[in-house]
Design brief:
8 strands; single chain; alpha+beta; 3-stranded antiparallel sheet; 5-stranded antiparallel sheet; 210 residues
């Protein structure tokens, strides 16, 4: 009887600890930016996207467009409606936004339901994202890290780290489900026609143009 009570108390304690860790806010993956700095980052990324969408002069050879963590975080916050949209850049050609992602312009997906906050950081060849969402009516932070790449003209992602709140979850338990979800959304992962590769290198997101 005493052993059963001990096991019951231990199970209860573990359950409470797990709940506390899940609901606990983890350390942010990137420092918070002032609104003005975030807006500047969003504008900087938009200019790079516009440049990426422009046709390249034949014979120029391979080139790259690099984006940093601050720019990506600002763009995701903008997509989620957490940051005012940047004014479109003035160009003499047609706006890239009038074309589909496959025609050359890079588009960020719309806000994911119930996502309240986005943060992105990159370290070496690892990209790490942190998202505030709702699970069972509670605000919970999800942290996902891994390797970003491409295969057969589509972006790929392999998770190496998963956290729910401050609780680490084995990436191997999540990767299979994640890959199925990515396969369901494969059309959204298609690279622009003028991009042959995407990767994270030296803490930056790199688009390699054809």
């Amino acid at each position: 009887m005493k052993l059963q009570r001990i096991i019951s108390f231990a199970t209860l304690a573990i359950s409470i600890l797990t709940l506390v860790l899940v609901l606990k806010r983890p350390a942010p993956v990137t420092p918070a930016l002032a609104p003005a700095a975030a807006a500047a980052n969003a504008q900087s990324l938009q200019e790079k996207v516009n440049r990426l969408a422009q046709p390249r002069v034949p014979g120029e050879g391979e080139s790259e467009v690099r984006m940093n963590s601050g720019e990506l975080s600002a763009a995701l916050a903008q997509a989620a409606g957490l940051l005012p949209s940047a004014a479109p850049a003035n160009t003499s050609t047609s706006s890239p936004s009038s074309s589909s992602p496959a025609s050359g312009a890079m588009e960020f997906p719309g806000a994911v339901p119930n996502i309240k906050d986005y943060q992105v950081s990159m370290d070496g060849d690892i990209v790490r994202g942190q998202f505030l969402t709702q699970i069972a009516g509670k605000d919970v932070y999800l942290t996902l890290a891994g390797h970003l790449g491409s295969k057969d003209g589509y972006a790929t992602f392999d998770a190496t780290e998963v956290k729910v709140g401050d609780l680490s979850v084995p990436a191997s338990l999540v990767n299979e489900v994640l890959q199925k979800k990515l396969a369901e959304q494969r059309d959204q992962l298609k690279l622009p026609n003028n991009v042959k590769d995407i990767k994270v290198e030296n803490g930056e997101l790199v688009f390699v143009e054809k």
